[in-house]
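pasting for the record
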Amino acid sequence: MTMDAVVTAGGKPGEGDALFTYTKGNYKALLPIAGKPMIQWVLDALNASSQVGRIVVVGLPSATRLASAKPLTLLEDQHGLLENLNAGVQELVRQVPNTGVVLAVSSDIPALRGEMVDWFIQAIRESEHDLYYNVITREVMEKRFPTSHRTYLHLKDKAVCGGDINAVRASAVSTGNPLWNRLIDARKSPLKQASLVGLDTLVDLFFHRLTLAETVTKVSQRIGVRGRALVCPYAEMGMDVDKPHQLQLILDTLASRPGDALAEPA
């Protein structure tokens, strides 16, 4: 059985944004990279995966020309990451009411490849959780992209950064879900975010008292969701394009494998 995906693609860098010179006010997801829009690289990876079914892109105009051999739906921007994810999941549920776990994929990881998606989905299927969070160790990231300058969470047993392809159970993503409402409400407030995980957990994290497993357990208990962190062996799944030097890293990486789109955009 395949797993469906929501690709979040909203957002236009403003004049103060590091990528504004490159996007020129257009959608970040449509930034040209090695011959095609950045999001097309992500769609190509999802299409190359043998485990992905339907795809919903949220955040771009419905007339945007994108290529996909798999069923593709485009939804307009809902003006927020969590709002876009919610809209995408609800669209998948509208199409198939018994939708289970859904991939949540960022449109700015163009080095993503099909075999990486397959690995992630296989890891998800090994357990029954509501939220699967992808983390990458500093060693893995810096071996592949030594000049990426990622920000790491330093835990007792390892330093990790977040990946940009995660997964959530559709039933946990709903505007009627109290937790989901709290997450949306807290997304722009550090104090509200802190209240979600608890002061004691924050202190333990600050002093590096918790391992990754202990952190997942404490945060899951605090927010009332069954969560699992998956330690990813692929740095590409967390190599997002937010700054010019990261864009150059990706350009250098993809220059040797430009390839063609799966089909002419509709």
